[in-house]
Design a protein that fits this description.
2 copies of one chain form a homodimer. With 258 residues, the first copy, chain A, is α+β, with helices and mostly antiparallel strands. Chain A contains 5 helices and 10 strands. In chain A, helix 1 crosses helix 2 and helix 3 crosses helix 4 (201-213). The interface between A and B is medium-sized, with 19 and 19 residues.
């Protein structure tokens, strides 16, 4: 048994999310099926994987990280090649590395970055509809940018967390949060970099920020929501297809690239 | 009755092609269904549309052109807006203009441009798999570029036409043909600009060019195929998802932009 970490990317469109569940095909199920096939395990045996965190149905990843213990001697890069041959092209193994047995994709992670893409054209771009939120309304970029500054730092994000969560501690530290505008392509891109994110947290932050940008909510709304600690008062959860897990950071980064 | 021309774009992934057919959902069927809904026609009545030419299952368009006669007074731009509200976001009406009754999307067209996108990474990019051909093999760009020069001009393209066609005249004029390489994104892009293209012509030209680039066929292969006029001797038909109808030209261009 040797432990490996893998950096993977996927188009989440056709999956019911990352994590294995009874109804519907997941990215984790696809990966574990391919691992079993590669290892030629007897029927019923299985190679469990752990990820840095689940992603929801329709959410994409550019740099998700997982780890697993492989039951036979093998070179890390041969896992990458075999998996890319076995998997559907909607999932790609970017890099596979040897790690120590105490490496854990989730518990060893120190930070994550997500981006959220918004298509601001009047009618949705056919080629972006599965990869961004269509939001054809006016927005005040400066106002949204200032509002986002108020979530940077260590805060209790109870207002920005789905009530479906089982996590008790709602305190997270956002190191950086900003928006960039790409006028030529009529796109906005939100970026959130922090030590961890609650269930639906980024999608609620984006949904509320767009309400601020549109004038439906005042500029200090994010600040107020941090104080009231009540999910019901926050804006809508932005839909999944704009969200991308961009990268996961580790104290001793096992990958060649960030 | 007044005639309108529309410039449309679509993601062809989920359709069995442009043209109405008995089995499967087509872009034309989606558009005609929306037109009937917009015009509130009695059941069984229908608004036929004509396009500049069909596109196959999985082929995309950035600037397909169609025309139709609308049975009630209406402003062109209101058609655009209504259609974009009624249609699935995989199809978008970019522009709608009034045209004379003698305008015909197909017969009035004087030229067309297609592009064909190739993903040259070792393993397919999950976000490009529906929008390009994955071709991880070596290629000699200079050789392919020189080979493409031989198809520019007026030629009999019998070797580059599906035998399923019913067209007798196989002579077409290609005004420009080239390839550009985007190293940063590991992409190749073929471009063909001409007065018309036969069934599968671009996909066979691309499939054969990639064989030349890979060294499987000699540099003069396209030249030779023009001479032998035999489809069986040409290379494979490249798959549909890399192909885009980019624009259609008319002598008196009815659109504001090319």
């Amino acid at each position: 048994m040797a432990r490996f970490a893998a950096k993977i990317e996927y188009d989440g469109t056709s999956y019911v999310g990352y994590q294995v569940q009874p109804n519907g095909w997941t990215i984790q199920a696809a990966i574990e099926e391919a691992l079993v096939k590669m290892a030629k395990l007897p029927k019923g045996e299985h190679i469990p994987t752990s990820s840095s965190g689940r992603t929801d149905s329709g959410v994409h990843a550019l740099g998700q990280v997982i780890h697993f213990d492989y039951p036979a001697p093998i070179k890390a890069d041969n896992i990458r090649r075999a998996m890319n041959s076995l998997l559907d092209p909607s999932i790609r193994f970017l890099e596979v590395v040897d790690v120590n047995d105490d490496f854990h994709a989730r518990y060893s992670a120190t930070a994550k970055q997500y981006i959220y893409r918004v298509d601001t054209q009047q009618y949705p771009d056919p080629f972006k509809r599965l990869y961004s939120l269509h939001h054809p309304y006016r927005y005040d970029l400066e106002k949204m940018s200032r509002a986002l500054e108020s979530v940077v730092g260590e805060h209790d994000f109870t207002s920005f967390c789905s009530t479906k969560t089982d996590k008790e501690n709602k305190v997270r530290h956002i190191y950086e949060a900003d928006i960039t505008e790409d006028k030529e392509n009529s796109e906005l891109q939100f970026r959130f970099y922090g030590n961890g994110f609650l269930y639906n947290m980024i999608r609620i932050l984006v949904g509320t920020s767009l309400q601020i940008g549109n004038g439906l909510k005042p500029e200090n709304e994010l600040q107020r929501l941090l104080e009231v600690k009540n999910r019901k008062e926050a804006g809508p959860t932005a839909p999944p297809q704009g969200l991308y897990l961009q990268f996961v950071e580790y104290k001793n980064n096992p990958f060649r690239n960030k």
